[in-house]
Amino acid sequence: MVVFKLSDEYNSPIPTARFFRALIGDFHNLIPKLMPEAIESIDIVQGDGGAGTIMQINFTEGGELSFIKSRVDVLDEETLTCVYRLIEGSQLMEKFESIAYEVNFEPTPDGGSKSRIASTYYTKGDFQLNEEEIKAGREREA
Fold first, then answer.
1. Which comes out higher in pLDDT, residue 4 or 136?
2. Where is the Bet v I/Major latex protein domain (predicted)?
3. Burial annotation 37-66 (CB, 10 A radius, 16+ → b, else e)
């Protein structure tokens, strides 16, 4: 197994608590509305949205993926942190044991928020990937 890590940072004018609730707490409702060309629906398969919840993201036809499943490992509304892991999904999981994400939100001086996303990719066997491949995949998803 090869482990590859990548971090990103994003700023938003939206206040931190509101941004966290929208992107994490209401993810399954918000994202299909923001990305209807890519996301057909997001279904809660198990749980109530907190730690242990499993969601299935169903992609629109014609894309590289048909679905992926993720599991929320940590949801801390006090520290505005969410840790989740992709655990299943069509072609993606042929090369990966799992992909883990840790998302943290913090306020900015102007009343907005900064989010930090740390991604950890656990590959199967000795499959190698690099930062350019990950960024290209993210651009296709957006």
1. 4
2. 1-131
3. ebbbebeeeeeeeeeebbbbbebeeeeebe
* The architecture CATH gives domain 3-130: 2-Layer Sandwich (3.30)
Backbone φ/ψ region at 24: left (φ over 0), alpha (ψ -120 to 50), beta: alpha
Sign of the CA dihedral with 65 first, then 5, 53, and 42 last: negative
Q: Are 42 and 27 contacting, i.e. CB atoms less than 8 angstroms apart?
A: yes
Find the mean pLDDT for residues 29-36: 94
